[in-house]
Design a protein that fits this description.
NAD(P)-bd_dom_sf; 3 domains; carnitine 3-dehydrogenase activity; globular; N-(1-d-carboxylethyl)-l-norvaline Dehydrogenase, domain 2; Rossmann fold; binds 1,4-dihydronicotinamide adenine dinucleotide; 16 helices; NAD; EC 1.1.1.108; eight-stranded mixed sheet; alpha/beta; binds the ligand C[N+](C)(C)CC(=O)CC(=O)[O-]
Length: about 475
């Protein structure tokens, strides 16, 4: 099992611990705060409810979390050491000194620093080449971006290994060409923050109005296209050149106070903190984190459905992690029901009753049906040739609950596969518990005439083979039932 050491388990260290753990790594934590174990347990609970639901395939088995009283004990056997102690250069350098006395000489030491350059961190370290910046974004377990900043002291092999590890735990390592204070993203964030503080100080807007200006408008655009692609479109058919021509001159108008830092005096701090209390004080930080995570999961799953931006990354990761069969030949034992879905319940699949919403059972059974179609040869190429299946009848029984983050799996049985008909029976399990069954009748169709049509041998032959083999299985309890009063 791969092992990561987390040095400093606060907001960011806790998020790293959760991501590594849920991606199957053992995690060893050192943090002198006596409350660290409780705080990380709370971050982990949020991560367990949200991260697994970004995948539409089974995540790796969760790793083991242990806490250690000293740095030497925490880094023992670790191949990745993530430093997330407070943003003080001397403290970070002191930590590296102890870490390097006791860690493997080829382990990667990543720093979460928001602002220091790697050359500053490497300073007088005994092995500067081991230390890189791996700057994450909060919540580390959901946001994939990691700014990877290196120097010439870092061997290419170590940098490549760092990228591979980050990709392996579902991150998007953005390797900066050159080191610079505050990397790329924090320079933007600071610019925006500075403007926002001026707007409050000058009495133009409150914290809530500024947040609304972002979340009802350009924040939504940025999440999916960033800055330049958005502005290219804003230039109309003439694109970026026209955009610059039209809006470039404003850059020299006195619109922004970007270069001036507002004085963070008591009056401004009271104004910001007071407005923030009025805006969000009704919720605890944990409640706000939960809302943020649910929203992020919904946005990311939306982007995933479009195979776009951060969503495309998630889709590619599913392909890497999937072990489910795509062809009949891949099925280990064709005489048994086939595993067609294995995933966790996404946060945005749950409802006001605190469990998986009824519509999502059909989503999961629909995915199981799609896999059964592919298994009998009705794959993307087949559909592109103008033929497919339509589902004409569905009967779902809801037998038990599933909550956010719970692992579910669907096992599928073919009750009939003859002529134009494919009759499927899916069982959804959570561990050993039967959660639901779904029975579906599919009819083979021509996509041109939109009416039933006989399949050709590409589907007819494997479908008949599957149906014949599954004919040996007992008829499932509940098959053929209609809704009725017991
Ligand atoms: N909070 C944020 O939004 C982000 C912070 N960062 C960076 O992550 C780092 C940590 O920041 P946060 O997690 O926000 O701070 P934090 O204050 O939440 O956590 C710091 C943790 O380090 C522990 N600590 C203090 N001295 C230590 C030592 N000698 N050895 C081990 N642990 C020690 C503290 O007990 C605390 O739990 C900083 O470098 C910061 O710039 C990066 C991205 C975002
Ligand atoms: C405020 N901050 C500079 C510590 C923020 C970051 O570094 C990244 C983030 O999560 O916004």
């Amino acid at each position: 099992m791969a092992t990561a050491a987390i040095i400093g388990g606060g907001v960011i260290g806790g998020g790293w611990a959760a991501r590594f753990l849920l991606m199957g790594w053992d995690v060893r934590v050192f943090d002198p705060d006596p409350e660290a174990e409780r705080k990380i347990a709370e971050v982990l609970a949020g991560a367990r409810a949200s991260l697994p639901g970004l995948a539409d395939v089974a995540m790796p088995q969760e790793g083991r979390l242990t806490f250690h009283p000293t740095i030497p004990e925490a880094v023992a056997g670790a191949e990745w050491i993530q430093e997330s102690v407070p943003e003080r250069l001397e403290l970070k350098r002191k930590v590296y000194q102890t870490v390097q006395e006791h860690c493997a000489p080829d382990a990667v030491i990543g720093s979460s620093t928001s602002g220091f350059k790697p050359s500053e961190l490497q300073g007088d370290a005994v092995r500067p080449g081991q230390i890189v910046v791996t700057h994450p974004f909060n919540p580390v377990y959901l946001l994939p971006l990691i700014e990877l900043v290196t120097t010439e002291a870092n061997p290419v092999e170590l940098v490549d290994r760092a990228k591979a590890v980050l990709e392996g735990i579902g991150c998007y390592p953005l390797h900066l060409k050159k080191e610079i204070d505050a990397h790329i993203a924090d320079r933007f964030l600071e610019a925006v923050w500075r403007e926002a503080l001026w707007l409050i100080k000058d009495g133009i807007a409150t914290t809530e109005e500024i947040d609304n200006a972002i979340r009802y408008g350009f924040g939504l655009r940025w999440a999916q296209m960033g800055l330049f692609e958005t502005y290219r479109i804003a230039g109309g058919e003439a694109g970026m050149r026209h955009f610059i021509e039209q809006f470039g001159p404003c850059l020299s108008w006195p619109w922004t106070k970007l270069m001036d830092v507002p004085d963070l005096d008591d009056a401004l701090i009271d104004a910001v903190a007071g407005q923030s209390d009025a805006q969000s004080g009704a919720y605890s930080i944990r409640e706000l984190e939960r809302m943020r995570d649910t929203n992020l999961v919904s946005i990311l799953r939306g982007l995933k459905a479009q195979n776009w931006g951060a969503g495309a990354l998630l889709k590619a990761q599913d392909v890497r992690m999937s072990t489910l069969p795509e062809r009949l030949e891949d099925v280990a034992d064709l005489s048994q029901p086939i595993l067609t879905v294995s995933q966790a319940v996404p946060l945005d699949w749950t409802d006001y009753n605190g469990h998986m919403n009824e519509a999502r059972y059909l989503t999961a059974f629909g995915d199981a049906t799609d896999r059964m179609m592919r298994l009998v040869g009705c794959d993307a190429d087949y559909v592109a040739s103008g033929v497919s299946f339509f589902t004409v009848e569905t009967h779902i029984r809801h037998l038990d609950e599933a909550k956010a983050g719970a692992r579910i799996r669907v096992e599928s049985q073919c009750l009939e596969g003859q002529g134009k008909r494919m009759h499927l029976f899916h069982r959804m399990y959570g561990g050993e518990r039967l959660l639901a069954t779904g029975e579906h009748m599919l009819i083979h169709v021509s996509l041109e005439t939109r009416s039933s049509a006989m399949p050709d041998d590409r589907v007819a032959v494997p479908m008949a083979r599957l149906a014949e083999t599954h004919a040996g299985l007992p008829r499932p309890e509940g098959a053929g039932k209609a809704v009725g009063v017991r």
